[in-house]
Specification:
With about 90 residues, the protein is an alpha+beta fold. It has a single domain, classed as HUPs (Rossmann fold, 3-Layer(aba) Sandwich), CATH 3.40.50. About 35% of the residues lie in helices and about 10% in strands. The protein has three helices and two strands, in the order αβαβα. It has a two-stranded parallel ribbon with strand order 1-2.
Length: about 90
């Protein structure tokens, strides 16, 4: 399973955490749209001004009638690698 590298927010002081002075993260669920440019979900997540946790989950049960082949799996892997590098460059 592919796990994107995500930079964690800097550790906050215990006092700030005790006072609930922290921002909850926004989960950005990538499904079929793996682009960053002009991605409505990414734009919305950025507007929230909170940490963003990108997530991609591949579920074979959700594939269409046809199962994904080796070439498609290779393409998906390459696309997720590129997405990971692009996201890492934004942080």
């Amino acid at each position: 399973m592919f796990m994107p590298k995500v930079r964690l927010p800097q550790q906050k002081s215990c006092q700030k955490i005790m006072n609930n002075d922290f921002r909850s993260p926004v989960i950005l669920w990538f499904r079929r749209d793996l682009r960053l440019a002009d991605n409505p979900a990414l734009c919305f997540a950025c507007e929230q001004n909170q940490p963003i946790v990108p997530v991609y989950i591949w579920s074979p049960e959700e594939d269409d009638v046809w199962q994904i082949g080796e070439a498609s799996r290779w393409w998906l892997h390459q696309s997720l690698e590129k997405l990971n590098k692009s996201i890492s460059g934004l942080a």
